[in-house]
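Protein in question filed below.

…
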Amino acid sequence: MKEKKSPQYNNRELSWIDFNARVLEEAYKKDNPVLEKLKFLAITASNLDEFFMVRVASVKEQIHSGYKEPEISGLTPVKLFDSLSKKIHDFVDRQYSCLTRSILPALKKNNLFVKKPKELDAAQKQHLDHYFEKVVFPVLTPLAVDRSRPFPIVANKTLNLAIRLEKEEQPYFALVQVPSILPRLVEVPSDAGQTFVLLEDVIITHLSGLFELHEVKATTAFRLTRNSDLYIDEEAEDLLIEIKKSIKKRKRGRPVRLEIGPKFDGETLNFLVEQLKVSKSDIYEAKGPLDLTFWMTLYGIEGYDALRYPPIVPAPAEGFIGYDDVFAAIRDHDIMVHHPYESFDPVIDFVRQAARDPRVLAIKQTLYRVSGNSPIIAALSSAAENGKQVTVLVELKARFDEENNIQWAKALEEAGCHVIFGLTGLKTHCKVLLVVRREEGGIRRYVHLGTGNYNDKTARLYTDVGLFTCREAFGADASSLFNTLTGYSKLPEYKKMIVAPENMRSFFLRMIETETENSRKGLPAGITIKVNSLIDARTIDALYEASRAGVKIMLIVRGMCSLIPGIEGVSENITVLSIVGQNLEHSRIFLFENAGCPKLYMGSADLMPRNLDRRVEMCFPVEEESLFAKAMEMLELFQHDTVNTRIQLPDTAYVHIDRRGKAPLNCHLEFARRAHQRARELAEQQRKEETGAIKE
């Protein structure tokens, strides 16, 4: 008998780099318009910034503390950091190769030019001189570094110039921060198309005027990334004040990366390394402009629509077509809305109508990330001003949104809302909105449950699903959940919801084990899971065991995946797909065959230890027949995509789905097409019914 291999796992950080590489592939794709390529490149840079600030920083902290225990893939912190460093250095080289060899030449062909000051004509140079004198120069603060003026604190992610100077054969150094308050791309007059110069190049050209008593010998652009993970004492007397203190510390955390611009000066680099206390492995040499995130500003440039995807325009949500009253629509039937293919407006209208409806007594909502000018916040404030009981759980610990959420919390409190900050030690990540309304038959509770944030901006880009219902079991569960979050209620027994950290882990393990046993009994068995990340070891082990038992498992995992498919005797029955395209896949869906009576759930949780053990998460069943069919259609379409989908191989590499013999199918565009088709059909049906009623 052949000996079975032991289960194997891919490291989460290395898996994340592979995900970011899949995003970068979109910047290389010939079929993608050039501004879309530029957008994908900028996204990879933004992703990498956050990865350094949190994940790389965490690995380095483990090394500094002497922690040597290997994680589930068998890598110690030192070995993991070595692997990460090599992989990221290679990745950065590919980023700049994409920019300089593919994107910039393509922009040039389309009359979008990014030039050096020396490439400009006389009129353009004169314009630049005037811009520097009137706009840039007043903002700059040259900082000399000598015995009386120590090396300044370089803020996280700021772009800086290190200047090596000389006077009477004595070397000197100075720093100039490139002001982030000014546009990075400075437009100059052009006879054809549009021409831009980088702000740092404008400054470098005029450095001699800043250091008139010294000779400028060399200039090196650099950017520092710091450990930005917050360490919050949740036992502090005032959590709001504690988080404010931690946010300030973020700008001064331990350096984890030093990016150096092209053609850097060796002496200046040595000076920076000594002052910033970084190691050789922390240095990343850029083959182009530092901080590739700024290219996102060029993505939206007017007059170049042909260089972008046609935008996906949301269709009217089919469940609300023909209704002016949101509550009437929900009373008639449960409604599922698939964003961004269907409009996010019903979610906003739900809160707005509740705010002004005299029958509404209370509104309760969780908020994790909201937009800069949120209509949801405005509606909640209006509701409180109208005398409703409004309770809002604002998660202050939403990473990198802490400052925004503090501002929203204050605004809501000033409007009269009850604002709470969740449970000690747990992030509240679930997406729940409860409206309590007095009606003829008594009190009725209306509920919205979602897979994504209550953010009207990201709802245009992220694929998420929301469920509206007024069924009593869901309303009771929502009330119980809020009572647990806001008070001292004992843990409830939920009728429909699955809630972390109380019972979500055990629930998913039990569902997987049931499929395993059903397969061994010869009953129908199968699992389909769509999440953003799958790194929880216990869940992976349960899926491996199900695979051994013959359960066919389809995993659609956008990002990190520690499970490895196709391992002989372990995961031969598991397929792992990753969808990366025009929209960001964000919905979480779980389907279990259940011996021929399938059960389907959606929710806010990924399969990660933090989601299952250290967050308040919520999943809900999709039971109504037509909504179940709609969800199954989603999963079916995800699995048949041939444009955005890659499949993971047993060596953890990802390759595009083999298209041979298959028609091109882009699930994002097809979802949009079907949503508009259904909306047109329902509108036409409604028109015919109204016409028939008038004739009668």
Notes: The chain has three domains: 32-307, 318-495+679-694, 500-665. The chain has a mean pLDDT of 92. Residues 77-109 form the longest helix (33 residues).
